Amino acid sequence: MMVPPCDRDEWAPRPHAFRRAAVDAVLRVRLGAEWVAPSLARDRLTTWLTEHRWPSDQLDDVVFAVSEAVSNSVEHGYGIEARSTARPDHAPVEIDAEVVPAPDGGRQIVLAVRDRGTWRPPVPGPSDRGRGLPLIRSCMAEVVLRPTAAGTTLVIRTPSVPQAAPRS
């Protein structure tokens, strides 16, 4: 007896067809030092954090902090002015992020934003500039600035968030 195709087992949904791929615990982004870089960093980081089911209130803070750090690399590290369309050769902005266990049993992200530009200390005195690092510090658990002759690295540790529930 022949069974109609719609009744065959091979047409039944398979549980494995709906499994999601594992999300990488590490994110590596390499961008050119140009004014579109902060936007690209925000998009890639938002997608990655969403895949990790990062709480939305914390997600916004992390994305803001990284966007500000990338903007600082472009403007201050490489000296590219805000309205410039310059695209210097060999001027990367690198972002490395990793989800790590937090001491309280939650999870955190450790991020490094790195450039190969020249560190320029803030100019003393009144200015409408120089608010980026204090803003980053206000929403992150830890911020370490490492300027060297080879470039600048900003290491950021997020506040702890609860472990994500397992995916079904």
What does this structure look like?
- The chain is of the alpha+beta class.
- The protein has one domain: Histidine kinase-like ATPase, C-terminal domain (Heat Shock Protein 90), CATH 3.30.565.
- 27% of the residues lie in helices and 24% in strands.
- The chain has three helices and five strands.
- A five-stranded antiparallel β-sheet has the order 1-2-3-5-4, covered by helices on one side.
- Strand 2 (92-101) and strand 3 form a beta hairpin.
- Helix 1 (37-51) packs antiparallel against helix 2 and helix 2 runs antiparallel to helix 3 (132-139).
- The two termini are 39 Å apart.
Write the layout of secondary structure elements.
Blueprint: E1 26-32, H1 37-51, H2 56-77, E2 92-101, E3 107-115, H3 132-139, E4 142-148, E5 151-157
Helix pairs in contact: 1-2, 2-3
GO molecular function: ATP binding
Pfam families: HATPase_c_2
Protein name: ATP-binding protein
The CATH topology corresponds to Heat Shock Protein 90
Major β-sheet annotation: 5 strands, antiparallel
> What would you report as the Rg, rounded to the nearest angstrom?
21 Å
Q: According to CATH, what is the class?
A: Alpha Beta
Q: What is the count of helical runs?
A: 3
Structural class: alpha+beta
By CATH, the superfamily comes out as: Histidine kinase-like ATPase, C-terminal domain
